[in-house]
Amino acid sequence: MFTLKILIVEDDSVSALLLQRALEKNAHQIIGIADTGEKALEILEENRADIVMMDINLAGELDGIKTTEIINEKFDIPVVYLSASSDAETLNKVVGTNPSAYVIKPFNIRELNMVIELAIFKDRKEKELQKLNNELEEKVKQRTAELYEANKELTKALEKEREINELKSRIVLNVSHGFKTPLTSILSSAQLLQIYAEKDHPFKQKIAKHAFKIENSVRALNNLLTSVLFFGKADENKLEFKPKKIFTGAFVKELIDTVNAGIENEVTIHAEIGDMPKTITSDPELVYQVLENLLSNAVKYSKDGKQVQFKMNIEEGKLKAEVIDKGIGIPKSEQGKLFDRFFRAKNVGIVEGSGLGLSIVKKCLEVLNGEIEFQSEQDKGTKFQVTIPVK
Question: Which residue spans adopt a coiled-coil conformation according to this UniProt entry (predicted)?
Answer without folding.
Answer: 118-170
